[in-house]
């Protein structure tokens, strides 16, 4: 048993990077004018082959809306970068040299067709009005800085994905899929026909006021369900997000610490398993799908430690499915696949014992 368990623990002790990403290496505002809502023009009548349509979103400029009902894991859109820039070296604490990035973006932009250039130039950029009056101001640089994502070792601009608005309870996740060379947006929970697709621009385990501060540079006040709720609900949400953050920190630390096989150690292992299941439920209660896979993975690890193979396998499978949804070929997905198989084997062995 100890051998098998150590194999499992060594397999799962790799600390997986969170899939949560932030948008733009300089923030930008999406939300600049009020206009018609979704209800004023329903694109489902148009028979669009796409799962989404870009339309004005009340109070938020343009937004992306589901043309049909989407199930968890359905692809909303996948987009190759319209502009791909190999950045200069990243300077710790200072980021990229924005001027140099701008020069490289301009060079790549000049190679594009007029239509592609026009699509890029229609995107929103964030900059202070005074900046626009400075000699050498380059709107393309501002657009690129505001909307580009880390894309492998490069920076990529995705004009369609750039239209998706932010929510602190997003219904979609997104990630760069190196195998297909596209950024993929998928439904992280059920999305109704006509519902606005949202992703998160910022890390979400923050209080309402901390989140608003992080969103300030994007030029809008978030009015999502979590931010616009009445005060008592907002405070409850703040508490849950703080508890989730603390629990992740503690359980990540514990997940790479050695097992102590004595009475106190076993008691602690039982307690950690309960905590990990509670964390997974808290994340669901606060509707933070970006963190489901991470929480489920921890629950798998801690249930494996107490040799509750059924629960461990259930959590591992869940984490694997969520990782696969984001990117079937990623390192994280493959690791969860291996872990799930190990746990199933352990469960089978357990059942085979006399
Ligand atoms: Zn919000």
TrEMBL record:
Residues 1-17 form the signal peptide. Residues 48-202 form the SET domain. Gene3D superfamilies: SET domain, Tetratricopeptide repeat domain. Keywords: Signal. This is SET domain-containing protein. The lineage of its organism: Eukaryota, Fungi, Dikarya, Ascomycota, Pezizomycotina.
């Amino acid at each position: 048993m100890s051998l098998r368990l150590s194999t499992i623990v060594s397999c799962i002790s790799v600390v997986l990077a969170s899939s949560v990403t932030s948008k733009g290496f300089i923030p930008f505002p999406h939300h600049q004018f009020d206009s018609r809502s979704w209800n004023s023009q329903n694109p489902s009548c148009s028979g669009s082959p796409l799962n989404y349509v870009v339309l004005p979103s009340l109070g938020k400029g343009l937004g992306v809306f589901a043309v049909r009902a989407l199930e968890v894991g359905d692809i909303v859109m996948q987009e190759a970068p319209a502009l791909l820039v190999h950045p200069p070296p990243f300077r710790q604490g200072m980021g990229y040299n924005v001027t140099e990035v701008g020069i490289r973006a301009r060079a790549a932009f000049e190679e594009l067709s007029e239509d592609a250039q026009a699509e890029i130039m229609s995107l929103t950029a964030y900059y202070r009005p005074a900046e626009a009056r400075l000699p050498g101001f380059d709107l393309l640089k501002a657009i690129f800085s505001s909307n580009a994502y880390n894309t492998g070792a490069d920076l990529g601009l995705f004009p369609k994905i750039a239209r998706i608005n932010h929510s602190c309870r997003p219904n979609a996740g997104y990630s760069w899929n190196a195998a297909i060379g596209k950024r993929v947006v998928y439904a992280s929970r059920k999305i109704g026909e006509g519902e606005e697709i949202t992703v998160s621009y910022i890390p979400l385990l923050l209080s309402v006021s901390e989140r608003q501060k992080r969103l300030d540079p994007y030029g809008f006040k978030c009015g999502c369900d979590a931010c616009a709720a009445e005060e008592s609900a907002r405070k409850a949400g703040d508490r849950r997000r703080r508890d989730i953050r603390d629990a992740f920190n503690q359980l990540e630390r514990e997940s790479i610490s050695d097992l102590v096989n004595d009475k106190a150690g076993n008691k602690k292992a039982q307690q950690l398993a309960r905590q990990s299941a509670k964390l997974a439920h808290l994340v669901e209660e606060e509707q933070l799908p970006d963190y489901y896979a991470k929480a489920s993975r921890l629950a798998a690890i801690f249930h494996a430690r107490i040799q509750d193979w059924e629960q461990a396998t259930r959590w591992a499978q869940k984490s694997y499915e969520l990782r696969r949804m984001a990117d079937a070929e990623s390192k994280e997905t493959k690791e969860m696949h291996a872990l799930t198989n190990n746990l199933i084997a352990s469960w089978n062995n357990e059942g085979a014992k006399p």
